[in-house]
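Regression check, iron/sulfur cluster case 275:
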Amino acid sequence: MLASLRDYVEQLREEGLEGPPAATEARPAAGPRAAAAPARDKIAPPAPTPPAAMIATHPARDGSPATAAAPTELFYRYPGLEKTDDLAALREFIGECTRCKLAPKRINLVFGVGNPSADLMFVGEAPGADEDARGEPFVGRAGQLLTDIIERGMGMARAEVYICNVIKCRPPDNRNPEPDEVAACEPFLFRQIDLVRPRVIVGLGTFAVQALLKVKTPIGKLRGNWQDFRGIRMMPTFHPAYLLRNPADKRLVWADIQEVMRELGRPLPSRGAQR
Ligand code: SF4
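Current build output:
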């Protein structure tokens, strides 16, 4: 009964309705990841303004001027992060990270996978048990659904896109990441985005979208509407784990994916391919 109530609350949140405060919500140990709002007021305060030399920008792939400043306070938090010049260097910089309290219980740090110069990047919340065991994002049931969306729905190879999470280590018992963990880990995500420089980001679920946009708006109100992530087009949509519980909403995700395909200038597969 408690599990049913939790699922119901998660569903309300995904649909844009209010539930109890995220800090009081426990998560099922083995279930798919929920997407809940981080308590922004608990996130560590921004670091002081860094020296100009640490300011990073987003140069476009065609060499035109940068479109938006990177979050300089994130680079300032880890001096040298802004100097990593490819994903391998970034992974080396992260190392066997112990920068937050998630480190001791992880099996594998789940960095990201896919095309290092992908036009399309998917950003989820945090690794679950399968991802922790294999060291790869989106490999469980929700991951298989994401793969289906990419391969059957979009007509692309999974290896053609880049996939990662906001948080690189699994929160114990699949609980929601806590604000201090997000604050510790998000500099790595921002650097990943800088290095991949995708044309489009798809934010998967409430938590990932809220962490990227620094808003509290529920995914039910954001999904389907283009957002700007520091000069990059971003489409918020439901997390595949939510779709496993609410398959009727696949049609909404399909509509969002169609928007993404149009933005990328790619042909739409037949309607039947995404069922
Ligand atoms: S979650 Fe991020 S900051 Fe925390 S230990 Fe893992 S890699 Fe480091």
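Comparison notes: DSSP finds ten helices and six strands in the chain. The first helix runs from residue 2 to 14. No diff flagged against the previous build.
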